[in-house]
Amino acid sequence: MTTSVADPLLNPQQVEAFRSEGYLIYKQPVLPQAKFDGLKACFEKILAALPEGERPEAMDVPHFLHPELFEWALDEHILNLVEPLLGPDIALFSTHFICKPKGNGKRVPWHEDSAYWKGMLHPMAVVTVWLALDPSLKENGCMMVIPRTHREAQQGFSDYHDVDAARNVFGTEIVESQRDDSRRVDVELQPNQCSLHDGRIQHGSDPNTSSLRRCGWTIRFTSTAVKFADFKGAHQVYLARGRDLGGNTYAATTRAYPEVMEVRSGSSRHKNSH
Q1: Strand pairing partners for 91?
Q2: Cα–Cα distance, 60 to 194 (Å, whole number)
Q3: Which residue spans within 61-193 are E strands per DSSP?
Q4: Residues paired with residue 2 on neighbouring β-strands, in sequence order
Q5: Tens digit of pLDDT for each residue in 164-186?
Q6: Other residues' Cβ atoms within 10 Å of the Cβ of residue 103
Q7: How far is C-alpha 190 from the geometric centre of its chain's CA atoms?
Q8: Residues with Cβ < 8 Å from 47, sequence gap 6 or more?
Q9: Are residues 240 and 93 in contact, defined by beta-carbon separation less than 8 angstroms?
Q10: What's the rounded Cα separation, in Å, for the pair 58 and 72?
Q11: Quick one: CA torsion of 101, 203, 95, 158, rounded to 10 degrees?
């Protein structure tokens, strides 16, 4: 856990833009270059160790098996990005490496993260940092968002229909009548740049049919005033900065939790909770 600092990285105009639009593209380097290089090396090692046949898009909650990732997930530069949005008392909710290999990277259907997290926390106030490890461009399937959908219409809880799980990262998508794809914005990033998005915003990405890999790391935060449900052994949250305000229980950043991964492997609820 780190302490709060006096110099947040977002100015008032950026904070207002995030609250209004539901996302923000941060085109500055997030981490010092040497530290980013260390994260990239750590990721490549984890990727190389994936079991044969396991898709790299599915590297959810890697921190449960690799606590060394907290060196970056709880880095002060990242926490300083989210503190203006969440306040000084911050919990780490989750992380996910989303890696689309070149040539056959799967499409991510239009979805809201909040739809997968319903019942897991209240209020539904999650800020995701999407940190680019590779160039994330339109040509290789960068993330797309539909602005303002976090506060319009279904406000994070749209209706879904089934899609082909063989071609998509997961098997459901927001019904077409409850989204307007013409409003989509491409979130293009260079390595060590990031976007931030509200957990309720509609977002997705095209398949990667290019010759360029596209990998990013999502790091998800809430205020500690958020109340988390009983995860029944299938999840853990961590105190990232400040103090607890919600009566929550926090896991230790110094150890791995293979037992959590075992519970998750038998729970369909958590397989696509990204």
Answers
A1: 222, 239
A2: 18
A3: 90-100, 108-111, 121-122, 127-132, 143-146, 160-162, 172-174, 185-186
A4: 241
A5: 999 999 999 999 999 999 999 99
A6: 13
A7: 17
A8: 56, 59, 97, 99, 215
A9: no
A10: 20
A11: -130
H or E stretch at 23: strand 23-26
What tokens appear for 131 in the block? 């940190």
Contact 163, 259 (CB under 8 A): no
Q: Give tens-digit pLDDT for 195-254.
A: 999 999 999 999 999 999 999 999 999 999 999 999 999 999 999 999 999 999 999 999
| Counts of helices then strands in the chain (DSSP H, E) | 7, 15
Beta bridge partners of 97: 59, 217
**The residue type at 202:** Q
pLDDT in tens, 118-134: 999 999 999 999 999 99
Fill in the amino acid letter for 82.
Answer: V
Tokens read off for 175: 């019904």
The CA distances from residue 126 to 6, 59, 98, 112, in Å, are 22, 20, 18, 11
| 76-86 helix and 12-21 helix, angle to the nearest 10 degrees | 70
User: Considering only CA atoms, which of 67, 88, 66 is closest in space to residue 5?
Assistant: 88
Could you tell me how many residues make up the chain? 274
Q: Is the peptide bond before 62 cis (omega within 30 degrees of 0)?
A: no
pTM for this one? 0.94
Q: Coil, strand, or helix at residue 226?
A: coil
* Tokens of residue 250, six digits: 């926090």
Cross-strand pairs, 239: 91
